[in-house]
Design a protein that fits this description.
With about 190 residues, this protein is an alpha+beta fold. Helix content is about 40%, strand content about 35%. Strands 5, 6, 7, 8 and 9 form a five-stranded antiparallel β-sheet that branches. A four-stranded antiparallel β-sheet has the order 2-3-1-4, with helices on both faces. The radius of gyration is 22 Å and the shape is elongated.
């Protein structure tokens, strides 16, 4: 089967050791994680893992089912690039003399909609937000000038393009079910 890039979004409680459990699912299947980003979500007490992997449709379904079975995982879903809006951030550390002496370097930075955020006599920092391919292209263009001292990029951050967050619906259903069970128990005790 042909491999494709998938983005997995996992919502969980913030429990120590859960990241290790989630990454172990990929290790057991010998799937390399391309990027991983973990942060607080818009829901209090819930964290969001954004993981990208190259795999096939059958494997991604199995992996997501395994992740969902973890006790502290609330929900896990996978998406293709057309089902999400995604972004990365990158920092490029350049030699300041090259930046000052080679006007083409500044032109490349502006052309790629990046911005210079720090300049000192030794090095300058360029920041770029955007799609993975754009970040890579800027790196390659700057590298051609021989001025890159360091380069780092974040993992992908992503949100779905649908009008709702699946985890919100799930949590609302879970809360309604809990409240109904609680009310039924109170009615039985009367």
């Amino acid at each position: 089967m042909e491999k494709k890039l998938y983005t997995i979004i996992v919502h969980s409680e913030n429990i120590a050791g859960l990241l290790n459990q989630v990454t172990a699912v990929f290790t057991r299947r010998q799937i390399n994680i391309e990027s991983l980003n973990v942060s607080a979500s818009s829901i209090a007490g819930i964290h969001k893992y954004t993981i990208t992997v190259w795999t096939d449709p059958d494997t991604i379904e199995k992996v997501v089912k395994q992740i969902t079975k973890k006790i502290d995982v609330i929900q896990a879903h996978y998406f293709t690039d057309d089902e999400i809006y995604q972004h990365e951030i990158a920092l490029y550390k350049l030699t300041t003399p090259a930046l000052e002496q080679t006007p083409e370097v500044s032109k490349v930075i502006r052309k790629n909609h990046a911005r210079i955020v720090e300049v000192n006599p030794v090095f300058s920092i360029v920041e770029m937000n955007g799609m993975s391919d754009d970040i890579t292209r800027l790196y390659e263009e700057l590298q051609a000038f021989g001025c890159v001292l360091q380069f780092v990029r974040s993992g992908r951050v992503a949100i779905t393009t649908s009008c709702f967050e699946r985890v919100n619906e799930y949590l609302a259903e879970r809360k309604a079910k809990y409240e109904k069970e609680k009310k039924d128990e109170q009615d039985r005790n009367l």
